[in-house]
Amino acid sequence: MALVTTSRLRSDRLIRTLLISAIFLLGVYTLFIWTDSSVGISVKPFRLEFDFDYRYAYAYADEDESEESLLRSESNTGSPTSTGSHHVSLKPRSASERLIASGEGFCENWTVPEDEEEVARREQESSCWKDRHYRQLKFFLDNAETDKSYSELSSSRWHNDLNKRNMKALRALFACLPHFGSPEPRPEECHDNMLNVMVFHDWWFDMAVAGGSESGETVWLRAIVETLTEENYTFVNLNHHQYQNLVKVHNALPDVVTFIYARDTLALSCLSDPRCRSDFPPNTTSVERIPMEQRGTIPSWKLFTVDYWGARPGDHGRSKHAYGIQWGEEMTFNPLGNEWTVAPFPYPGHTYIPLTLEKSCLQLDVVPHDQRKEEVTVLGKLYVNLARDTEYFYPHRMGLVPQDVWPPFQNATSLAPIANARALKDTDVEQSTPPGLINRGPVPSNDYTRQVATSKVLLTIGRPEISPSPYLALCLGVPVVVPYFGNKAVPEGWDLYHSSEVQHGPAAAIGPPYVYSYQMGENEDMYAAVRAARDTPIERYIPEDMRHAHVRAEIMKLVTTDWQPRSREIEAERVERGEPAQALVKQHITERLFHLGVGRRMGGNGELLDTLYDDEK
Ligand SMILES: *[C@@H]1O[C@H](CO)[C@@H](O)[C@H](O)[C@H]1NC(C)=O
Ligand SMILES: *[C@@H]1O[C@H](CO)[C@@H](O)[C@H](O)[C@H]1NC(C)=O
Ligand SMILES: *[C@@H]1O[C@H](CO)[C@@H](O)[C@H](O)[C@H]1NC(C)=O
Ligand SMILES: *[C@@H]1O[C@H](CO)[C@@H](O)[C@H](O)[C@H]1NC(C)=O
Q1: pTM value surpassing 0.90
Q2: Ligand 1 centre from 107 Cα, in Å?
Q3: What is the DSSP string of 77-136?
Q4: For domain 2-23+364-546, which CATH number applies: 3.40.50.2000, 3.90.340.10, 3.40.50.720, 3.30.565.10?
């Protein structure tokens, strides 16, 4: 959200496109170290092969054993994991592979039922998953013929294209049913991977699928959409204003939907709503009041939150306001934990799918160092208030850098500081930038990229936080200089992403000769960092984990992991600690959502409610 609000500089669009790339090295390397050595993390003895790190669980069954039996056998085997005991490959099996394997011996020679009677008969008699899929998809598609609430799941005027895509994808899935898992020649448009059905319930996903935005969120999610498209996954986009569509789609297609990726408020709403979530803790008053036939169908393990900013603890960023989280209190969207929060930075405990700018950035040339201008591009996306001050440059606004840094800048660094500031909703060159700064005003995005590419340094001055822009500069072979505000240039844990500690911790963690840090307010420190960057040319630099191939592999790991066994692990651990197996979203979080007007729940007649209690007006 905030990224967008701060990305108003028109000329910066390309940057944003390219953008998102590189964040975090340090965090990343740290993560890799954990990942690689994480097998020993203590989990309950588990018979099958797995590799638990703090984000992913891989519980891969021997080919012919169901997860159920594996889970049951888990407690019978004494030996805890040890690094030497892996003897089966950790190759993930996607939901489509698991489904097809479950049909062995039951689905051979499956044919489309001739009539309603046969459908009904098979409901009693058939053990083939295709009959279940057939019933659910047919119900859905039949309804969609006559009822727009089924065919227009993404029904704002922006999204008409998405409605068509949704229906096309579900019809294709239905039409291909006879061919999945079949050794016979099949129509070329039928691929087993279509059985991996992803439901997206987030506006940025709409943008990533249909186009129309180059925000950091969109660029990030587009890699996911592109990867899943290449893999022939099925996806369905739901309008994020229409929570009821999530309930409707999943109630109709409970066995067809593989995973749901929702925005924060919708995931929290569902997980607090017994008419949405199926594994609501039993014997809680909120669920006992709800008749069985009205209870939800979505198990917690299917529901992920996608969030650029992550589920931050109460003393970091927006959690206090947005979720009513207290100082120092931890935040999760899914009560199962933040493995169910997908983010573009390696936030503690989150599932990390990095941004990647590689594809677009490689199309840009690196300007040889001796052809660069004696200039520093000052990243100060603007966004100016009514008084027409450029916020980033003025301490009494949100700007953080002292104004007296600019007059001596050129003398101190022998580079001219260039800004591209404009007033909000105004294409005029911003006139009120501080003396000493050369403001060229907004320029078209290609020109802006060119300006960065021909600069000796990209200097950031406090905001925007963790934006992708530094990664674009690095990819153009331009070193970056970033400030910190606390005691450490590269803080640890959540502080690495804390906007009052450091502007761009993940970039800062890359370190020289790519990224230099200066202490905010220490002008000499800033000049020294700029001079060091100026005097140390670099080649094009793309952090390894922001390479396209790596990001793609991480996406596939996320979508092919079987998250249900992982959720059972977590539940078993709770039981062992004497807690109930299922956890609730904390009451004060739910209350906060409804207080802010963003909470949603279903009523007894299928109506959408935005009040938390039945007696509320
Ligand atoms: C499927 O058809 C083949 C060939 O007609 C036949 O040999 C096989 O027994 C059938 N399988 C089942 C489960 O009916
Ligand atoms: C996806 O579909 C395309 C086009 O039908 C096909 O060429 C490709 O092999 C498929 N890939 C996978 C992984 O199913
Ligand atoms: C729920 O309450 C009922 C009746 O009070 C009791 O029999 C049952 O064991 C409880 N279930 C759980 C999971 O606590
Ligand atoms: C530039 O620096 C030199 C020597 O460091 C100093 O003598 C001169 O006054 C400075 N000029 C300005 C405009 O600050």
Answers
A1: no
A2: 10
A3: --PPP-GGG--S------HHHHHHHHTTTTSTT----SSHHHHHHHHHH---HHHHHHHH
A4: 3.40.50.2000
